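Quick question about two entries, pasted in order.
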Amino acid sequence: MTGATICLWYDKEAEAAARFYAETFPDSRVSAVHRAPTDYPAGKAGDVLTVEFTVLGIPCMGLNGGPNVTHSWAFSFQVATETQEETDRYWNAIVGNGGAESACGWCSDRWGLSWQITPRQLTEALANPDAGVRERAFQAMMTMGKIDIAAIEAAVRG
């Protein structure tokens, strides 16, 4: 069977990151932790080398490859939410665990991985056939860090 797995590079904290994701998001788990059989450039024999995990049903591998490669905004997980409570819960978990806020629903976790916490109401507003609705929703989103569903819905109504 052929499949794809997302490989995410960490500096010694792949297991901590994977366990955080497993505790934070549904359909997420850590399935295996593999230790280095010998010393390697970023670690010693016995250190955690790779971690197999799933985030929101997406298979991933965390690689403790060292400090030379860092995450960028060019890759992010987009998490679709239904309610403000769910939006707040994910946003607050990521930002409150050493992460950082950004704009338009984006934030990053303490390991530098980017997340888009995106309520369904925003996605629908930005895909609305009415150009005025799309513009108002977009303008409202551009003023936000964490997405405020009530403010998006108000913008949609005009």
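Here is the second entry:
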Amino acid sequence: MPIYLASESELNIGQAVVLEAPAQEGHFVVVFEDDEGTGYFYALDTQAPGNPIQDALHIYDVSDVTDRSKPVNIKIGWSMDHQKAVLLINGSPHAIYDFASKQGCCRTGFPPPISTSWSVNGHDWKDTMLELFA
């Protein structure tokens, strides 16, 4: 998967953290947040009027992670065209954003779309979105 690494951190699930990863070019940013209860991945457009958050993807509920006492490696990578971002946990993709098509997907498929312009068909995981990084 050809990506450039924008952010990396080791953490324990349930440890409060915010990892921002701006694209090297353009005005898109993705953010991973663990608020000690849940993990979410956000798509931001810093040029959008009003709230820059365009979409949100649920990654996990801390209480559901059985091995949460073990540290995990979180990486956020961007495609070479600066239009697609992927969230990797211990090297495995858990969420993807495609800013060009305004679509996000995650392993949990949650939540329902929060906007009428992003992920209008939902957040269900699509292996085909991995091809965006080929």
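Reply: Residues 4-133 form one domain. The beta strands are 4-12, 17-22, 28-34, 38-45, 53-61, 71-78, 84-89, 92-98, 103-106. Hope that helps.
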